[in-house]
UniProtKB/TrEMBL annotation:
EC number: 1.1.3.21
GO molecular function: glycerol-3-phosphate dehydrogenase (quinone) activity; glycerol-3-phosphate oxidase activity
Essential cofactor(s): FAD
Catalytic activity: sn-glycerol 3-phosphate + O2 = dihydroxyacetone phosphate + H2O2
Protein keywords: FAD, Flavoprotein, Glycerol metabolism, Oxidoreductase
Domain Alpha-glycerophosphate oxidase C-terminal: residue ranges: 466-588
Family per similarity comment: Belongs to the FAD-dependent glycerol-3-phosphate dehydrogenase family.
InterPro entries: DAO_C, DAO_C_sf, FAD-dep_OxRdtase, FAD/NAD-bd_sf, G3P_DH_FAD-dep
Domain FAD dependent oxidoreductase: 21-351
Coiled coil segments of this chain: none
Listed GO biological process terms: glycerol metabolic process; glycerol-3-phosphate catabolic process
Gene name of this polypeptide: glpD
Designated name of the protein: Alpha-glycerophosphate oxidase
Amino acid sequence: MTFSLESRQQAIQNLKNEQLDLLIIGGGITGAGVAIQSAASGIKTGLIEMQDFAEGTSSRSTKLVHGGIRYLKTFDVGVVADTVSERAVVQGIAPHIPRPTPMLLPIYDEPEATYDMFSVKIAMDLYDKLAGVTGTQYANYTIDRKEVLQREPGLKSDRLMGAGVYLDFVNNDARLVIENIKEADELGATVASHVKAVGMTYDANGRVNGLKAHDELTDETFDIHAKLVINTAGPWVDKVNALNTEVKAQETLRPTKGIHLVVDSSRLSVPQPTYFDSGLHDGRMIFVVPREGKTYFGTTDTDYTGDYKHPRVEQTDVDYLLKAINNRYPSVDIALNDIEASWAGLRPLISNNGSSDYNGGGANSGKVSEESFNNLIKTVDDYENKTAARADVEKAISQLRTAHAEETVNPSQVSRGSSLKVAENGLMTLSGGKITDYRKMAAGALEMIRDILKKDFNETVREIDSKKLQVSGGHFDPNNVEETLKFYTKVAMSKGISEDDATDLANRFGSNVSRVVSYADQGTADGLNLKETISLRYSVNEEMTLTPVDYLLRRTNFVLFHNDQLAAIKQPVINEMARLLNWDAAEKERQTAQLDAAIAEAQLDYLK
């Protein structure tokens, strides 16, 4: 089944001519999660995205599905329990994408440190219990100062106490989105990228019943009709809600910008993902992650009011991260010219829901409330007097609430930091959240969608178990990932592809490898090896890849993590896409300029 420029044209005809049950605005991780569950439920579903899928926030994360161990500092047990359980669900439905990886958490004897060696062990034990990994190969442990420096000799030794090691998951954010989108398409959703919502349409009673949409490729404007419309536009949700002119729009978001920088591993070598306090006494924590021969680090967390389409890395962002990295790795002396690639993204934070994860905030930031604190103290006293059991103490800890949270938690909240609302004229908005929560957010939205379709349209929708709804490429046993991917590696090798290249294909495409290698019979493209030839052809024909930037930045990681290979692969990719998509000389030149600009921006040429 194709999912391509050609199928996009048919999708747009369907959007023009058919009434949908549900129209989704936004093709990031939130919209993708709603689309796959909606289509699987038998709901007649459409989705439009004004750019490429995942082009905004959903390809610009820290590229982890992390469990939020930091929340345990303030006894946010319920939050961590939700997060680690949901993390396991995501790994089950997309087993070829998130990968378990031990995270190193160095502990320094510094003012405002998140943990000391005693508290980090307590936090990690509780974390493992919540994650269900106690007694497995992924169980946490601590190491002393000497072993930390043996693992990472470049780390700052002054005031280093030791480290904790615990389980987290590395992720490929953009691929998680496209695999959800592809599965939604397979299940019958009508999906088109580069279609922008420019207005709402209303029925005789003033209820939202569709959109005015603009095809960004053909410059055509048309109407899409739907019983229900849901806004999942990430940082753009307020801008989309402003199109709903029949009701007063209320701003719900406070976007913040986060950036990440990439250097070659020869400049900063870490054996495993590492997570530490910035050391700048600002309450932030920094990730340092090895990936594909490179090391990337981030993130910043600053309020943002600029161009949502093109958030950029600024000099102040670079200065902050380099100061933090060179403080923790004093011998590396990373400078601007060492940066090979970068990315900047916006977090769609709910404005009344505290700060972001990266500042230790969120819905429950603030002091522990008086009632919760007194209950904990009383229970501990009862335990010491032998009138309460250990389980009572654990329950009292898990029921700790912050004063801020008790004032602001809303019944419509479907996961931490997210919001699900319905305007008085029917427009639904699902906003906030983070990648780890996307499936749960979508499930909350689907529950509401089912209720409205039943109540207002007398339409009964079947319920599905979205915890078992696997994405495209993920149709295999999540308990047997390594062996399954070895099998798909052999499938690719059977076409004459080297083991390293075949392994890369298996990790990128999972159970779709058999489809990918079917393109091998067409021979290789000029300037591309067989692996990249079939990857590109599959991506254009079956992943709605429309531009070289789509392919080299979001379907693959070339722009971010293979800077040294870009010069060789860039022109052959453009040439093959021009052939596949029938570009004339002018279009080819335009696409080349667009790619050059994206590469220059990622490489921070404007700062260098």
